[in-house]
């Protein structure tokens, strides 16, 4: 099956892909490739999950295998169908398709039967100690643990208590089922791990049928085996769990030849990003406490947040390719994510005019009541995108920052006595301005050169500045939201202070009195926009024809480095 990879592509395989290619060449698992993406439906996916999605689905796609979606729904206290639906939506938005959808709860009966078998074989027991007592008896990496007083209780007693754990009559925390392995094992995960606990809460799929639920380490490997997974790819924190993963699979199919017919776990580094957090607990707190506008707040690292901010799925995948996959954890610079967005959006975005901090510009020698339609290129990177027209008139809006009455030598914008070009229109010379009593500029005046219209033969005499504009009578009001880093510190996860204290108070700036050309409002809500000379923008989900709202995805240049 490795023939699916062209010879030139083989040189660029990451280390996981190299393992897969080798396993396929060696005929392991009968030459099959089957991966899975196994999220717990207890929150929305973030960009770290996007990296795992690109790996799990991408490697299956590259080598002609299949990737299934499996929801690890073994903890009904935190899980909800809302999260199930959002996860499916995010995967599809990123551009991937699963082979089948499974749930860990599909295997509850099989896992229960396996646990009963372990008890009958003397390899598991019911422990009535508290979680604190069990933790104290675990020992340390250099000191063996001590056995539970219940470790050698009679098999029939453990069987009866295990049934009782699932009856609903016992409170949570009163009993657990532990695998009887080795309390002196140097791998702490082997020191009689808990494999079942009591949760008295209705499950979103199985209802009230179960009260005893399997732990992740017990359910995960077996679920992989039941489904026929060949490569169980996960992040580095699961490296010490791998021997236990293999142990339970060996016990499940004890006596059978598994060497070439078993799932194998491989690990890569997780995605950590500067100026944000990936902890679901902290992200949930931000949402619940109203510190952000929901899971899809454009400042959040969630996939739906990136989507609402205006990132394309191609930009997210490009970023994942840029940082790559290794066996070493690293902190990735947020600026790399923005660079991936700029590169992608530059090629696909529609160019339009918008003025965020408007001041009136009056072309005094342009006839009152006259208008002209100027041709504007939709995307200079793609000629096939065509053009549209923008209306020019006597009164325009320009950016307040584009005018200075007393400007330094290298200020090549609007200055009294100097010329600039109005993009797609004419060259104008500033003749003065009108001020309010407090010195604020109220109006700017200029005169245009009728022979300098863009596109006319001989009209391209050079001036050093080009400004964007919109016609005051032919534009639409809009609210523009400028988003910045969510946190003030580079690595908030490593900071000992409460993460709420580290939030950036300037992470959102709302500009309520902006103007955009009408053509911008006529596009669909899924269109990517470049506000010329400003940055990349998209429509917010709350934007309507009556109230236009745009979110800034990223600026045209990286301004954060200067800060």
Explain what the structure shows.
With 563 residues, this protein is α/β, with parallel strands linked by helices. The protein has 14 helices and 27 strands. Helix 8 packs across helix 9 (242-252) and helix 12 crosses helix 13. It starts with 6 loop residues before the first helix and ends in an 8-residue tail after the last strand.
Distance between the termini: 51 Å
Q: Roughly what is the average pLDDT, rounded to an integer?
A: 93
- General shape: elongated
Low-confidence stretches are 1-9
Gyration radius over CA: 31 Å
Please give a quick description of this structure.
This protein has 14 helices and 27 strands.
Core attributes:
alpha/beta; 14 helices; 7-stranded mixed β-sheet; 563 residues
Present the secondary structure layout:
Elements: H1 7-10, H2 15-25, E1 34-37, H3 47-62, E2 66-71, H4 81-93, E3 101-103, H5 108-120, E4 124-127, H6 131-136, H7 155-165, E5 176-179, E6 194-198, E7 212-214, H8 216-227, E8 231-235, H9 242-252, E9 264-268, E10 272-273, H10 280-288, H11 303-309, H12 313-323, E11 331-332, H13 334-348, E12 350-352, E13 354-355, E14 358-363, E15 372-377, E16 387-392, E17 395-399, E18 419-422, E19 427-435, E20 441-448, E21 466-467, E22 470-471, E23 475-483, E24 508-517, H14 518-521, E25 529-531, E26 535-539, E27 548-555
Helix pairs in contact: 8-9, 12-13
């Amino acid at each position: 099956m490795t023939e699916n990879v062209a010879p030139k592509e083989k040189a660029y395989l990451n280390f996981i892909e190299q393992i897969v290619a080798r396993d396929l060449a060696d005929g392991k698992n009968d030459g099959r490739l089957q991966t899975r993406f196994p999220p717990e439906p207890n929150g929305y996916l973030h960009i770290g999950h996007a990296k795992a999605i690109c790996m799990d689905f991408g490697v299956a796609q590259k080598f002609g295998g299949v990737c299934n979606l499996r929801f690890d729904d073994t903890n009904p206290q935190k899980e909800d169908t809302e999260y199930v639906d959002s996860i499916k939506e995010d995967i599809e938005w990123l551009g991937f398709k699963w082979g089948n959808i499974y749930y860990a709860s599909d295997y509850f009966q099989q896992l229960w039967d396996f646990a009963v078998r372990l008890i009958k074989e003397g390899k598991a027991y019911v422990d009535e100690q508290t979680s604190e007592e069990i933790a104290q008896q675990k020992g340390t990496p250099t000191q063996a643990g001590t056995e539970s007083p219940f470790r050698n209780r009679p098999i029939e007693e453990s069987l009866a208590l295990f049934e009782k754990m699932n009856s609903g009559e016992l409170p949570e925390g009163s009993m657990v089922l532990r695998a009887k392995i080795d309390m002196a094992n140097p791998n702490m995960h082997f020191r009689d791990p808990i494999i079942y606990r009591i949760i008295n809460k209705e499950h979103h799929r199985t209802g009230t049928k179960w009260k005893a639920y399997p732990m992740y380490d017990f359910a995960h490997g077996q679920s992989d085996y039941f489904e026929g997974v060949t490569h169980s790819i996960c992040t580095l924190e699961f490296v010490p769990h791998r021997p236990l993963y293999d142990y339970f699979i060996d016990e499940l199919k004890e006596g059978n030849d598994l060497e070439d017919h078993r799932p194998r776990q491989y690990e890569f580094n997780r995605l950590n990003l500067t100026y944000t957090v990936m902890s679901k607990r902290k992200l949930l707190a931000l949402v619940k406490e109203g510190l952000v506008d929901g899971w899809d707040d454009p400042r959040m690292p969630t996939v739906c947040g990136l989507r609402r901010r205006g990132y394309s799925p191609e930009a997210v995948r490009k970023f994942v390719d840029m940082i790559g996959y290794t066996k070493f954890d690293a902190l990735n610079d947020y600026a790399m994510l923005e660079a991936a967005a700029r590169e992608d959006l530059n090629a696909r975005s529609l160019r339009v005019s918008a003025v965020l901090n408007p001041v009136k510009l009056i072309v005094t020698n342009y006839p009152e009541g006259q208008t002209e339609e100027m041709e504007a290129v939709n995307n200079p990177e793609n000629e096939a995108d065509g053009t549209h027209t923008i209306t020019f008139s006597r009164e325009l809006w320009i950016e307040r920052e584009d005018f200075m009455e007393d400007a330094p030598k290298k200020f090549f914008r609007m200055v009294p006595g100097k010329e600039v070009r109005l993009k797609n229109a004419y060259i104008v010379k500033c003749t003065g301005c009108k001020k309010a009593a407090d010195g604020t500029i109220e109006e700017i005046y200029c005169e245009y050169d009728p022979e300098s219209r863009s596109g006319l033969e001989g009209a391209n005499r050079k001036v050093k500045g080009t400004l964007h504009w919109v016609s005051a009578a032919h534009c639409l009001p809009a609210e523009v939201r400028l988003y910045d880093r969510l946190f003030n510190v580079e690595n908030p996860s490593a900071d000992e202070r409460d993460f709420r204290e580290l939030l950036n108070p300037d992470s959102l700036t709302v500009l309520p009195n902006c103007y955009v050309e009408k053509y911008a409002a006529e596009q669909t809500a899924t269109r990517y926009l470049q506000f010329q000379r400003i940055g990349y923008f998209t429509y917010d989900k709350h934007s309507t024809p009556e109230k236009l709202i745009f979110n800034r995805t990223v600026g045209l240049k990286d301004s954060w480095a200067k800060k």
